[in-house]
Specification:
- This protein is about 75% helix and about 0% strand.
- The chain has helices spanning about 5-15, 20-30, 30-50, 60-75, 90-105, 110-130, 130-145, 150-155, 160-180.
- The chain folds into two domains: about 5-75, Orthogonal Bundle (Rna Polymerase Sigma Factor, Chain: A), CATH 1.10.1740; about 90-180, Winged helix-like DNA-binding domain superfamily/Winged helix DNA-binding domain (Arc Repressor Mutant, subunit A, Orthogonal Bundle).
Amino acid sequence: MHEDQPAIRFRELVVPHLRDALIFARGLMGNRDDAEDVVQEACLRAYAATGRGTVLHPRAWLLAIVRNTAFTWMAKNRPKAVLVLGDDVEMERLAETAGAALTGTPILTPEAELIRKAEAAAIQRAVDALPAPLREILVLREFNDLSYRDIADLLSVPIGTVMSRLSRARLLLATSIAEAHRD
């Protein structure tokens, strides 16, 4: 059986980056179910676009499609005033991993596990509370490990804008976490 060219290109361009697409979508959408819907729709869009020209940076190309799909989905399905707050287990695990990486401490005892979960929840709440443009850049950089240049290209903004938004996001995140620890 001979596979068609769009399917081969889809497998080469999209499949290696599906995990990153899902992580990014979860960061934007706030929950796993909506993120999976967005990635599925993005994959359909990517498949339809596989025959249109050369893709130099497949990961950034796919994440741009995911971003556009997420914003389209949110415009249709969510009231404009609603903040995206998620309780997604996978995003919680990512936040927990970030918290463990920040402390550098292995978690061995039940007490330490409770503290780690509380810190992870505080990090997740702080990320969720960021304004969408700052949260988006933070997720792209910290969870998807995109370079400043890739983020700038993906969002069609100057690299200086990426750097300043990321700096503001990190500052707001640190301030929010510090305030949570004071309480």
